[in-house]
Specification:
By secondary structure, the chain is α/β, with parallel strands linked by helices. Helices cover 34% and strands 16% of the residues. The chain has a nine-stranded mixed beta sheet with strand order 3-4-5-6-9-10-11-12-13, covered by helices on one side. The two termini are 35 Å apart. It binds S-adenosyl-L-homocysteine (SAH) and iron/sulfur cluster. S-adenosyl-L-homocysteine binds next to strand 10 and strand 12.
């Protein structure tokens, strides 16, 4: 399916659904055009931007540097709202998950993972995913559409609301990093993801730098160059297998973009050098991709790429066909990579008690609908 066909079929709903336009997610140029359309001078757009993204203001009344008349007119035509929250859960380990409810009733998830030296927000790019990786729960969800820029930026704003991180703090942030590793394939929704990330990176707003943002792709090769050139964010690639035969099965997109071409695009990723390595994600599946031979082959494949490997313990979900490798196997696999000078931290699963871990994200409503279907089918 071509990119444009994707965009058409999976377009988000109109942001004007309540009659007023949501300003969250408009690019700087779009916001300037709205302000100019109201007959206001250009510097008002800059002030408004700072209220929205530096102070996190939702209510125009609070924007006290703007004239009362302008604030009133803003309230008549616009809103500055975040996605609705259907469920907010907090894990015993401090991980928080939001099940977001969008205006058209669709849902997606965002997860905040606090650590001693950082706090990472895992952001969704689509409702569901059109790809069908065999080990991924999101890939079994039927309903799919792209998220709009506002729905993507809104996830970051919502987390900052909950963490009470307004105005944007310079230091000691609880939300320091963003990973596009929630639901969906971000490079199948590149334009909206790019617009959202530009807003998130803007130094006069949330000011989260590109070095603190990582976009994870299952390997949409033709879009990788643009991602590096236009956004300059870190790249993570979901590799998961060292042969095309196995990767065809685990990550069906491999049939379209096999390993050799994927690794070539990694070598050519703009800005890739030793200080900014590409992360290769590798889900540990017992007896499937976790042998010593696999580890050695992985090290060979990556030997001329500035790379690190993220070994992800497989997170099982109801009905999944795989088991997670044993801790000893994972350790051995990591040791073999280390022996070949590949750093391979094992990503400790977080928020397991609230189903917040990688690949488990699937909307509640979809789960409920499936339960109902199953019940009806008897
Ligand atoms: N679609 C993108 C980003 C979202 S998935 C991608 O595939 O890269 C984020 C990461 O979680 C990917 O590496 C994905 O392969 C991994 N993942 C999916 N299901 C998983 C599961 N059940 N257990 C562990 N990791 C999983
Ligand atoms: Fe989609 Fe990523 Fe899940 Fe594959 S692993 S189905 S690309 S979300």
């Amino acid at each position: 399916m071509s990119q444009s066909a994707h965009a058409q079929h999976f377009a988000p709903p109109d942001a004007r659904s309540d009659g007023r336009l949501n300003l969250i997610g408009l690019s700087r140029a779009e916001l300037e055009a709205e302000v100019a359309g109201m007959g206001e001078p250009a510097f008002r757009a800059k002030q408004l931007w700072q209220w929205l993204y530096h102070h996190g203001a939702e209510d125009f009344e609070a924007m006290t540097s703007l004239s009362k008349a302008f604030r009133e007119r803003l309230g008549e035509y616009y809103v500055a709202t975040r996605p609705g929250v259907a469920v907010h859960s907090k894990s015993v380990d401090g991980t928080q998950k939001w099940l977001l409810a969008f205006t058209d009733g669709n849902e997606a998830e965002a997860v905040h993972i606090p650590e001693s030296d950082r706090g990472t927000l895992c952001v969704s790019s689509q409702v569901g995913c059109t790809l069908t990786c065999r080990f991924c729960h999101t890939g079994t969800q039927r309903l799919v559409r792209n998220l709009s820029p506002g729905e993507i930026v809104g996830q970051v704003m919502l987390a900052r609301d909950a963490l009470e991180e307004w105005p944007s703090p310079k230091a000691d942030r609880q939300l320091t990093n963003i990973v596009m590793m929630g639901m969906g394939e971000p490079l199948y929704n590149f334009d909206n993801v790019a617009q959202a990330l530009r807003i998130v990176m803007d130094p006069h707003g949330m000011a989260i730098g590109r070095r603190r943002i990582t976009l994870s792709t299952s390997g949409v090769v033709p879009m990788m160059e643009r991602c590096g050139a236009e956004l300059g964010v870190n790249l993570a690639v979901s590799l998961h297998a060292v042969t095309d035969e196995l990767r065809d099965e685990l990550v069906p997109l491999n049939r379209k973009y096999p390993i050799a071409g994927l690794l070539r695009a990694c070598r050519e990723y703009p800005g890739v050098h030793n200080a900014r390595r590409i992360t290769f994600e590798y889900v540990m599946l017992k007896g499937v991709n976790d042998s010593d031979t696999d580890a050695r082959a992985l090290a060979r494949l990556l030997k001329d790429i500035p790379a690190k490997v993220n070994l992800i313990p497989f997170n099982p979900w109801p009905g999944s066909a795989y088991e997670c490798s044993s801790p000893e196997r994972i350790e051995r696999f990591a040791d073999l990579l280390a022996a070949a000078n590949l750093s391979a931290p094992v990503r400790a699963p977080r928020g397991r008690d609230i189903m917040a871990a990688c690949g488990q994200l699937k909307s509640e409503s979809e789960r409920k609908r499936k339960t109902e279907r199953d019940a009806a089918a008897g």
